Amino acid sequence: MVYVSWHDALAYCRWLATATGKPYRLPTEAEWEYCARFDKNAAELKYPWGNKYPPPAGSGNFADVSAKDLLVSYLPGYNDGYAASAPPGKFNTNSLGLYDMGGNTMEWCHDYYAIYPYNAGKVYTDPMGPKEGKHHVVRGSGWMTSGISELRL
């Protein structure tokens, strides 16, 4: 789905939980990142497709040559076949069997956005963002993204 607010995504999770009797919620930013970065035995990927830029053919739905008339910036030489968003699941899954963790549309996370001070001596294990804030976290890249930093997990 596209153009869904954080509140709409939360309402869907609540509806699904009620309908199925199982708990559903948006992932935390840490959970999303772990799932997106996981490759074989560790969470170490730099990009959804691997660790080298640019993406190889078929890596996902990113700003490509088919969208060059719609966007200011695009990936020259890359064509995923969709000028805008693609139907879900059109590209390969990642190592955990998840579709579209990079490309197509960005995803809402449960956490509020915060800037954490860097502390090389501290290890964070599955951190939950602050309890309050102004903006919620959005992760992943979308069909409109082409920059090297935008495509990083």
The whole-angstrom Rg is 16 Å
Question: What letter string, H or E per element, gives the SSE order?
Answer: HHEEEEH
Uncertain stretches of 5 or more adjacent residues: none
**Count of beta strands:** 4
Query: What value does the average pLDDT take?
Result: 93
What does this structure look like?
By secondary structure, the protein is α+β, with helices and mostly antiparallel strands. It has helices at residues 6-20, 29-37, 148-151; strands at residues 38-39, 42-43, 107-112, 136-139.
How does the SSE layout of this entry go?
Elements: H1 6-20, H2 29-37, E1 38-39, E2 42-43, E3 107-112, E4 136-139, H3 148-151
Antiparallel strand pairs: 1-2, 3-4
Quick synopsis:
The protein has 153 residues and is of the alpha+beta class. The protein is built from three helices and four strands, in the order H-H-E-E-E-E-H.
Index terms:
globular; 153 residues
